[in-house]
Amino acid sequence: AGASFAAGSSGAAAANSSGPSRASKMFIGGLSWQTTQEGLREYFSQFGEVKECLVMRDPLTKRSRGFGFVTFMDQAGVDKVLAQSRHELDSKTVR
């Protein structure tokens, strides 16, 4: 089965109408409990310039909730991520 990534609200039409370089946010699920924001940024920066990176954490325990978000400087980074069918980070396949 293929991995699925959800790009934020940035569709091709929206990206074209707001200029050539529009930040694009992606939901990243299935993260390992050990994955840090730095690790997430390091992995996804191979696909393009990362503007922002966030691993969601439980407010009480500070433990990772197993998902996060990566925002690329432009849509090209998202396209490169989606072009690769499988992504593994900290020994887990992420979606």
UniProtKB/TrEMBL annotation:
<dbReference type="GO" id="GO:0006417">
    <property type="term" value="P:regulation of translation"/>
</dbReference>
<dbReference type="GO" id="GO:0003729">
    <property type="term" value="F:mRNA binding"/>
</dbReference>
<dbReference type="GO" id="GO:0005737">
    <property type="term" value="C:cytoplasm"/>
</dbReference>
<dbReference type="InterPro" id="IPR012677">
    <property type="entry name" value="Nucleotide-bd_a/b_plait_sf"/>
</dbReference>
<dbReference type="GO" id="GO:0007417">
    <property type="term" value="P:central nervous system development"/>
</dbReference>
<feature type="region of interest" description="Disordered">
    <location>
        <begin position="1"/>
        <end position="22"/>
    </location>
</feature>
<feature type="domain" description="RRM">
    <location>
        <begin position="24"/>
        <end position="95"/>
    </location>
</feature>
<protein>
    <recommendedName>
        <fullName>RRM domain-containing protein</fullName>
    </recommendedName>
</protein>
<keyword id="KW-0677">Repeat</keyword>
<dbReference type="InterPro" id="IPR035979">
    <property type="entry name" value="RBD_domain_sf"/>
</dbReference>
<keyword id="KW-0694">RNA-binding</keyword>
<dbReference type="InterPro" id="IPR000504">
    <property type="entry name" value="RRM_dom"/>
</dbReference>
<dbReference type="Pfam" id="PF00076">
    <property type="entry name" value="RRM_1"/>
</dbReference>
